[in-house]
Design a protein that fits this description.
Two copies of one chain form a homodimer. Chain A has seven helices and no strands. Helices cover about 65% and strands about 0% of the residues of chain A. The radius of gyration of chain A is 24 Å and the shape is elongated. Chain A binds a DNA duplex (30 and 30 nucleotides) through helix 3.
DNA sequence: ATCAAACCTGTAGTCACTACAGGTTCAAGC
DNA sequence: GCTTGAACCTGTAGTGACTACAGGTTTGAT
């Protein structure tokens, strides 16, 4: 159990929090503005004072974002966690929907890549003022 | 060779162009504003009058966008085409750089999917107030 | 006290659109 | 010709997720 003095030594400025979490200062303020992060206490001079719990929350947010969850999805997950009595099923539902989105996006990109690779392969990159890529994409005169 | 009267019958309003190309009216105006599309002639009442050549250009733009080229990449390609004496190599360079971006993006998404699938698989979606997903993503108390 | 770095709030910009608001034009129907 | 609704116009602002200032204040070292 930390003593009050020891707890006070764990206080972080926004710059320190930024460094510890790899999250941009301005992004941290953005997250506060949109409600993902609670407004922290301030110094007498108006500077934000973050506790360890703030840091842990921000790490969670960043991990979710890195995994591609949208801000809204992160918000839903945080609401579940904040409520303190979420079910594992609710979390899994959000996660699996996101997984589905990822799969669809990958399939989409693969199709694009395949199409583009086919078009590009028809071009040997010469100096001729014609190009199969342009010829494919630019409609002919009717 | 179309007669002047026949050429005049090929004139499209912006709504007609939107329908023929599947490109939103407001997006067409946006493309004009950012210079991808040239400003077309106007009717006496100020309405835009698009020729067939405008339509072909817009189809090209839409195809490139659908393939994931950024607006700037489309702009580069259009500059090449507009110059009229581009080399196939220049076009291929833009295209292959885009292909590389696509490949990187796919690899990135696959990694995310794999990570997330692993995390999600640890969750059987029950009613317990604990969740391996949250446990993985939310830092523990130090 | 001085000074540079860190911080603050507010505003605006990025990218590629998308959605109005308020007004004008067009064309069909009477 | 008049009416009316649809289509069009310009200008502005919003979307999502940041990111970058400007101009001012606070902090901490010297």
């Amino acid at each position: 159990m930390m003593s009050p003095a020891a707890a006070r030594s764990a206080v972080l400025s926004i710059g320190a929090l930024s460094q510890r979490t790899g999250c941009n200062i301005e992004t941290i303020r953005y997250y506060e503005r949109i409600g993902l992060m609670p407004p922290p206490p301030r110094t007498a001079g108006g500077h934000r004072s973050y506790a360890k719990s703030h840091e842990r929350r921000l790490v969670f947010i960043r991990r979710c974002r890195e995994l591609g969850f949208s801000i809204e999805e992160v918000r839903v997950l945080l609401d579940l966690v904040d409520g303190g009595h979420y079910s594992c099923g609710e979390v899994k539902a959000v996660t699996d929907r996101h997984l589905e989105d990822l799969r669809a996006k990958i399939a989409d990109l693969k199709k694009l890549q395949s199409t583009l690779a086919t078009i590009s392969a028809a071009c040997n990159g010469g100096q001729v003022p014609e190009c199969p890529i342009i010829d494919t994409l630019y409609p002919n005169t009717d």
